Amino acid sequence: YETMTATARRQPEGSLVYIIEQTDLYLRVRDGVRQVQVNIYLTVSSVGVVNVCHCPQLHLVALNSPQTGAMRGIRGADFMCFTQAQAIGMKGTFRAFLSARLQDLQSIVRKADRDILPIVNLKDEVLFDSWDAIFNDGRMKDGVPIYSFDGRDVLNDSAWPEKTMWHGSTSSGQRHVDSFCETWRVADRALTGMASPLRAALLSFLYCL
User: Fold this and answer.
1) Which listed residue, of 50, 53, 141, 176, carries a Cα 20 to 30 Å from 192's Cα?
2) Are residues 79 and 108 in the same domain?
3) Do 48 and 148 reside in the same domain of the chain?
C-alpha cells in the first residue's frame, strides 16, 4: 500500500490498482487514490419478516439467465456481471461468485469487510449477516428472495429449472481443485463443477454442460 501511495502521482487518472495481500482495489483519482467497494454477484417465496438494510453492504444478484460451465473464464463471468449491473444503473466493482485456479471465492471480498458488511439482494433485503456467514453457516435468511439483475425471483421463476449456483469452492470458500469446469471455460458432461442448492448449506457436483 505504501508503495502504491508513493507512486500514485505517476499513475494516470482512472487507473486501477489491486493489492494482492489485502485483496483491495483502488482507483487513481485527481487528488490521490480512492478505495473501490466490491459488489458480488451470483452466476446462477415464502412469506416472512424481511430485514431491509440501508447501510454499507454487498449485493448478491443473479445473472439474467442460468449459465453452463462455459463462461469464457473468470473474466468472462465478471464481465457478464459488470454489463448486466451497468444496464440497470448499478455502480461499483462487480465480481462473479466463483473460485478459479488462481482465485478463492472467500478472498474476493477484502478481509476487513468480511465480518461487518451484510450481504443483501437487489432490493437491499438481508440474505446473510456477513460474507463470513456464507461460509460458516451457508444458509440464507428465510423468506428472502435472490433476484436477477432484471428483477426476477430466481427461486420461483421457471427460467431457472435448477435452483443451484456455481461456485467451484469448498465449504470454507477455498477453490476446489479440478471442480470448476476447466476454469469456467468448458460445457461438457465429462467435467463437473462445485455448486450448492440456493436454500441449503450443501455442496454438490454438477455437470458443466
Assistant:
1) 141
2) yes
3) yes
Calpha distance 105→115 (Å, rounded): 15
Sign of CA dihedral 68, 118, 20, 15: positive
| Percentage of residues in the chain having pLDDT higher than 70 | 75
Task: List, in sequence order, every residue forming a beta bridge with 27; answer none if it has no partner.
Answer: 16, 34
Residue with cell 466463483: 98
Tell me the β-bridge partners of 81. none
Q: Are residues 84 and 184 in the same domain?
A: yes
Distance of CA 139 to the CA centre of its chain: 16
| Count of domains for the chain | 2
Higher pLDDT, 117 or 35: 117
Which residues have CB under 8 Å from 86's CB, separation 6+? none
**Pick from 40, 39, 46, 43: which is nearest to 145 by CA?**
46
Residue type, 77: A
Q: What H or E segment, with its residue span, contains residue 82?
A: helix 73-87
pLDDT reported for residue 177? 79
Residue 159: the pLDDT is 93
